[in-house]
Amino acid sequence: MSAESPGERRGGFRAFFASALRPKKSRQVLRKGFSASTPNLREGLQSKNDIPEMPSLAPLQAHRLKYREENLQKDTQLGETRDHTAMLHAIGVGDLDPSDPNAQLTEVDNRPPGEPMIASITWNLWAKVAEYLNPAERASLAFSSKTLFTRLGPEPWKTLNLPENHNYKGDFLISQDKLLPHHLLCFPCGKYHRRIQEGREKLQPADVVNPLFVCPNARNSARPAPRHRITHGRVLYFTFYQLVMRAYRFGPQYGISPDSLSRRWRRDGWSHQTRYHIHQGHLLMRVVSTCFADPGLSVSQQRMLLYSRDDYWPYFSACAHWRDGELMNVCKCALSHIPSPRDTGGLQGLEHRAKDIYHGRAHNPNALTSLCGKCRPMRRCPECPSEYLVEVKLTEDRNNANTNMFRQAIVVTRWSDLGDGRSSRLSKEWAAINGDEAGEGYDSFTMMGKRSISGTFESAFTDDTLPGQRIISMNPKGKKLGEAGNNWY
After folding, report:
1. CA separation for the pair 329, 343 (Å, rounded)
2. Which of 17, 67, 140, 489 has the greatest number of beta carbons closer than 10 A?
């Protein structure tokens, strides 16, 4: 056996240290491989050309950088160029929306003057054109330019001042509202009066003298001021309607805000609340009338609860067509659904009480009332823009000294579209609600379609909710008997 074979064992202390300090073959192999394959970093750093290149980016990261560079000046959602200079110019006067009524558009009219063309037409031909116009339109045509006034002459103004054309005179004068912020058009007089309560106009009850201007026809019953009956003892004069719409169209110095018309009051056992809102140039009104009702009312008691003995109109708000249709029958049907307390006297009463004690229940006459299919839906007047909703609610009676503080109450809510407020004749909605001649032929289902006044009004206020009820006609049979019919009473 050779001396280098693993089986050889040399003895002695010297041999032990010689074998312990001898380097292993595995260490020599690793050291040789490391020195051969690894470059000398100190030598490589001596020159910049020998620095290794950085590895390329991942495909996803490279795509993100490229997309960011290409769309740096673009809107990431719409793909439009984000030019801040163009955005600032868009805010200016040049790019305002023409459909916005509050936009102050300053367009440059490069058209040639039309006076020579108007003057080239003879006065006989202009007179023929004026024959097809009503007196208000004829006066507006003569008022548009000096040349037309010369061609038509003073005849349109003389015709407009005739007593039979008094309504047309008001239609013409209402177009001058923007030029007279401190005045208000008086329709009975046919002229503008100076406002004596400018900026302090407040809507008062009908029996309170509240003049907004000095008018010689203020007490003339032959020429009453246009008004709309809200409830018994409360009316909305057209002058307040004018002030609200003038302030909306021209500015606050021309009138008052719609919130200043809102009121709460009590009369004849009924409590009323009004609220107004302007939507797309029309004034919307909501009137909520509430009255406590006892169960088991007879027909005569229902009439005493619903009708005023002064003029036999309902205590709640109603349009001029309330007698035609099912409005009053719906109110009477809702009153009949109020639960009556059980008769606890006699054997039948003892039987009911025994059953309640056995089942552990108590009869509650103030439980929630559910209406039937006749009185639950909302009703829309087919001849004017008015909608009605009749409900029976459990309401707290704070004036009751008894322990029972909650009672059943009938609640009648009315929503109405009063129109644009130009005049009592030009506003078809105002004329239709009051039953005037100018509002004849108004079809609410055709004009409004699927849009409901109640939904439009309640959507403007987040604190109010509207029950999801379908809307049906208040007069499905189309009978127009008015006071001659007896179905309303």
Report:
1. 28
2. 140
Residue 324: CB atoms within 10 A of its CB come to 22
Residue 337 has pLDDT above 50, yes or no: yes
Residue 258, pLDDT score: 93
What's the pLDDT at 440? 85
**pLDDT for the residue 276:** 95
* pLDDT at position 401: 63
pLDDT tens track for 398-450: 776 665 678 889 999 999 999 998 888 888 999 999 988 888 889 998 888 77
> CA 28 → CA 3, 4, 19, 379, distances in Å?
22, 18, 16, 104
Report the phi/psi class of residue 212: left, alpha or beta, with left for phi > 0 and alpha for psi in -120 to 50.
alpha
The residue extents of the domains of the chain are 262-484
Task: Give the model confidence (pLDDT) of 217-243 as tens digits.
Answer: 888 888 888 999 999 889 999 999 999
471-478 average pLDDT score: 89
Inter-residue contact 255 to 247 (CB < 8 Å): yes
Residue 117 buriedness (CB in 10 A; 0-12 / 13-18 / 19+) = exposed
Rounded mean pLDDT, 41-46: 49
d(CA 217, CA 190): 11
> In whole angstroms, what is the distance from residue 467 CA to residue 376 CA?
10
**Angle between helix 123-130 and helix 135-143 axes, rounded to 10 deg:** 140
| CA–CA gap between residue 100 and residue 107 (Å, rounded) | 14
> 392 φ, ψ to 5°?
-125, 115
Backbone phi and psi for residue 418, each to the nearest 5 degrees, phi listed first: -85, -5
What is d(CA 34, CA 56) in angstroms, rounded to the nearest whole number?
28
The pLDDT assigned to 34 comes to 46
The Cα–Cα gap between 388 and 385 comes to: 10
The alpha carbon dihedral of 345, 347, 350, 356 has a sign of negative
State how far the alpha carbon of 138 is from the alpha carbons of 128, 145, 185, 359, 479, in Å. 11, 13, 20, 82, 39
Could you tell me which residue, 118 or 16, shows the higher pLDDT? 118
Rounded to a whole number of angstroms, the CA Rg of the chain reads: 43
